[in-house]
Amino acid sequence: VRERPVILLVDDEPTLRELMKVTLGHGYHFVEAGDAAEALELARKHVPDVMLLDVMMPGGSGLDLLRDLREEPALKSMRVVIVSAWQSAEDRDVALDLADGFLAKPFKVEELVNIVSTLTEDAA
Amino acid sequence: VRRESLVTRVVALAVLVAVVVGAIFLVFVLAATSIRRSADKETRSKDVTVGLLRLETLAADLESGIRGYVLTGQRRFLAPYNRAKTQWPAATKRFRALVEKDPEQRARVDLVSREVDQYFTDYAEPVLMLMEFAPTAARDEASSNERKRRVDQIRKQLDRMLATETVRSRERAASADRVARRAEIAVIGGLVASVLLILGLGAWVARAVARPVRNAADAATAVAGGDFEVRLPEEGVGEVAGLAAAFNSMTRALDDSRRTLIEQNARLQESERHKSDLIGMVSHELRTPLSSVLGFTSLLLQREFPPEERHRYLEIVDTEARRLAALAEDFLDVRLLEEGRFDLRIEPVELVTLVREQVLLFFGNTRRHPLSLDVPTEPVVVEGDRDRLAQVVGNLFSNAIKYSPEGGPIEARVKIVRGRGRLSVSDDGIGIPRQFQNRIFERFFRAGAPSKGIAGTGIGLAVARDIVEAHGGQIGFRSVEGRGSTFWLELPLSPSEPAPEPTRPLSEPSRTRVP
Q1: Which of A84, B223, B393, B427 has its CB 3.0 to 4.6 Å from that of A55, i.e. a possible disulfide?
Q2: How far apart are CA A112 and CA B295, in angstroms?
Q3: ipTM score
């Protein structure tokens, strides 16, 4: 049993990863990825409780990554929140279908805290 | 090829039918006339026969009257003779009129007349005179062979005429029959010919007109159903071929305009997609820095942080707010370019220094993109607007980083080429697909970058080209998809190099208006 829930932050903007980290505070263990390939590797390695996933990243869409991750039985318990600035209507449908939550950028810090704590408490 | 007109053909065929039918009626009328003439001749033959029999009766009356009177001596037996003698001239005259056009019969009737006259003068009158005073002598005379011979001759002559007339009558009947049969054949033949001709005309009209018209109707239905490929054979008589040609040019025109419409529609859809992508991109580009600004400010307002952390977050807010401002500038630039208002503050600018400043800004703390900088030892002074040129150089560096998502070395080189200052920036990134290369400087054009998750507005290069060209310079690139790109720009060197131009002090830069 882990001491603290593990959160995987996936975003190509370092400042946004930092913002999420500072917002969520010391109650979590953070793992950070700047692109989809890195995120896949880290997800397999750490099996995070929650993944906060950006959609539009250089080197591959977050939604394609999500589809791949959902195929992996080891990652079944991982909760995913899409954090996105924009996507097409089809993308939104896919996101809502595959993810456990959705946050639109710019998000309110309270919303981020609420959604992550709800998902980690559910898992606990 | 000159085609005969349909009207000409139809008129010609109608005339032909009319001529044939007219000819048949003419034959029919001629046959009827000929039959009537034959019937007239037959009637006359009968009249002739009747006349001959009458003459024979009269001749018999003459003979029997004389014989009766001579043998009995009684006067009353002489009555038939007297009656026949008075009627004979008129009967002969009437008969002669009947056979006027028949020389043979006329000759014979003349002969009979002469013989009857001789009979009167040589026999009948002398016998009657002899009866007055010598009845016995008269009786001998009456039974003489001479008298019998004369009467027989007259009779024979009349019989011969009768026989001739009978033959004539038979011949005429036969000839009338022949004429009637010939007329029958001609009329039937003509009827068959005109029936065939009319059927032929119908068949020809069907083939030359009805079938092409039906084909045209079928083709028109096909066109109505959306098949614009359908074509009619351009053959047949004038108007029909003309209809086919007109129809074909109509379908060709329809096909062309449909194709144009489809192309236009495709272009519209592309531009529509383009616009939607642009809106998405702009929204993405705004939301990302906005997230940092709003997030960190609310954290700073809600929570307490140690001074260093606080400072760091304020710096992030500052940087991201500047990014927003720069974005706003980009859009402003686009507006200025579109409105044709674009002011340049022209002054001597040292290109190497300017490039070094931008290198520090973009490559100061990244290890993903090792930069190699190759610059000459002497200064490269160009004429230009320092801020605008910095914007262009920054754009080339930011593109080199953005379009090498896997990382990779970037090479920048400054040199003087043919009296111009040249900067080139090379990367080993994703490159530009060939089919997009001629549109890369178009405003808002992003060459498939959104599908690769590369953010941007499609403004940078369009603005860069406008700025470089406003300086009298040139901008261009070489690129291979999957292997990287090299963008370069060339600017005119400052004529006052190395010192600033004395007539244009730095404190008062000249302003150039660019259309």
Answers
A1: A84
A2: 10
A3: 0.91
